[in-house]
Amino acid sequence: TNWVADGIWTQHTMSGFWASGTGGKVQNSRLTSIWADGINVNNVALNGNSGNNLTVTNNFVRGTGDDAIAINSVNYNTNPDGSKTYYNPMTNVTVSNNTSIAPWGGKGVAIYGGSGHQITNNYVSDTARYIGLGAGRFGVNGNDLLSATVTGNVVVRSGGNAYSQGQPAMHIGNGGDGQNTGIVDKVTASGNTVSDSLYDAIGFSTSTNTVLQNNTVTNPGRNGIVIAPPYYPAPTGSATITGNTVTGLKSGSAAYINNSSGFTASVSNNSWQGATPEGPYGGTAAAVPGTVQAENYDTGGQGVAYSVSSVNGTGNAYRADGVDLEATSDTGGGYDLGWTGSGQWFRYTVNVATAGTYTVSLRVAAPSAVTGALHLSNSAGTNLSGSVSIPAAGGWQTWTTVTATVTLPAGQQVLTVNQDTGGWNLNYLTFDASSGTPSATLSVSPSSLSFASQAVNTTSATQTVTVTNSGTAAASVSSIATSGDFAQTNTCGSSIAAGASCSVSVTFTPTASGTRTGNLTINSNASNGVVTVALSGTGASTSTNLAAGKPTSESSHAQTYVSSSVTDGNQSTYWESTNNVFPQWVQVDLGSAQSVSRVVLQLPASWGARTQTLSLLASTDNSTFTTVKASASYTFDPTTNNTVTITFPATTQRYFRVNITANTGWPAGQVSEFQIWNS
To answer: Which residues cross the membrane (predicted)?
Structure first.
């Protein structure tokens, strides 16, 4: 507690500082030519289990073989016997006013897990192979990163090509350590400068609630700010990206790219968006019914009116931001939109004369057939057209027409052409009012449900499907039914009005173990026929030990007899609490709420008989515990393999705790195996 390392010169060592505890400081020190980490503050050093309120300030670090400066919050380490030792997540670490130069085998500043960290006014330059400044989580055994503030830092000539990945200079999200796992949440990065990056300046992988605000990027080697750059996937996530400036882009590079359809970014007031907000090209919305030329996408620029992963077109003579445009040889001439690719999109402002259903004729060209090429959506992101496939036309300028149907309200609105699979060109879209009487069109969200493992003959929690009528007439519902081990209730009634929605609540009650499948089927007079939702779940066998290999925790432990032994499947290893102090407890986290009706406790088979007085508690949130089995005395007898079985009415809980108040064989709580069964 409150240790200080001040003014120390370290050179030619395995690592510099490897430190844990509370309130400690590494300051005013100089480290050069270090084989591994320069300064690594953590929660494990010298058998510690916490790292809180630590400070790393005003240090100079040059030439390290791993991270120059790192906050390393470890969740657990695996011991030689296979058991695990768990540690407290790190909190409130400050890294400020440091200089990190030329780490040849790691990051300049690395944030791995914990919460409340402050990374301010550091200078990072010339990383040889890796990210310059990264905020994420380390490995499968690291803690999630739940909050950090990164502000006022300067990152120069950083990023690198380790593993041929083209790593960004600054990175936020999981995967920065090569493991795409864990949670990275609530990172705020503001007022930082990233200049002359080797590849992308700032990259995002999977992360949530990030704020990237008022940062400056100059002369990036590839692109400016990229969501899901190569080798850093972001299938989900969210960020607010505002007030940032990107300058000095190379030809063909982009200031901002979002390569992920599942990562939601709110992008505003950035330099590449300019002073002009999104609007119809030429100032007037395209009329519907009518033809919308592909080259007449909205104004507003990258990330606002369109999103492309690279700039390839030759259409700047037509419009200054003529990305991915080329002259077309189709009848009528003009330009077509090419270089299509998954995740790209273009927005078009249209003015619909009359609400109704429209047939959209898309003029397209594709050398080979493209399945699921595109879809049209409205400003809310609702898929209006369904997936549109394109047949093989034989060439990039060999044109054909495919059709889709959309239902639109009257008035001015924005439609988006979403590129789901590349390999085709688009010349124009023609909207014609569909003939015939009004009709209903039903859609469902989500289109499938997957249930977690559920004990056989028990019922899961409810999952909900929303049914929407996007047509122009009411849908008459004749039946809603499920098949397999699934059941439903609904609010739909016998009719769903045009534009209205209802919900279907589905539960899962497996009748056997293993994978179970079924369908939710909605029969109606909708123009798109029968609507189905695929259902799946896993029935947990009555012989399943739900606790096997699961995380554990404890009130205390003696010597090396840690709680992870109780779920390692080895009866010879055991947890033992601090001696001569009661009560004591050991706990298992099942990872999710499970139906449980039996617990089996064991001690090593070779031990002599003893009686422990204990109770069984359970919780869904690890905060409020209820008593599942009241306190009683249980005898562990070697003639019955030192095994005790406790049964009780089935209860659905995530955390199970054995609370021990007495032991006739030793003055401590002792358990070697804590098995939790669903029957």
So the answer is: none
Q: Which tokens in the block code for residue 68? A: 């120059």
CATH architecture observed for domain 442-540: Sandwich (2.60)
Which CATH superfamily groups domain 4-273? Answer: Single-stranded right-handed beta-helix, Pectin lyase-like (2.160.20.10)
- Residue 665 to residues 560, 613, 661, Cα–Cα distance (Å): 19, 11, 13
Q: Taking CA 373 as the corner, what is the angle to CA 536 and CA 360, rounded to the nearest 5 degrees?
A: 110
User: For 194-243, what is each residue's pLDDT tens digit?
Assistant: 999 999 999 999 999 999 999 999 999 999 999 998 888 888 999 999 99
Is the entire prediction scored with pTM above 0.85?
Answer: no
Half-sphere exposure of 632 (CA within 13 A, CB side): 11
Question: Looking at domain 552-677, which CATH architecture does it have?
Answer: Sandwich (2.60)
Q: Is the distance from CB of 394 to CB of 367 less than 8 angstroms?
A: yes
Q: Is pLDDT of 568 > 60?
A: yes
The encoded tokens of residue 215 equal 């940062």
Number of H helices, E strands in the chain: 0, 61
Assigned token pair, 66: 């791993």
What residue has token string 């080979």? 368
Per-residue CA distances from 174 to 39, 144, 437 (Å): 22, 9, 52
The amino acid occupying position 526 is: A
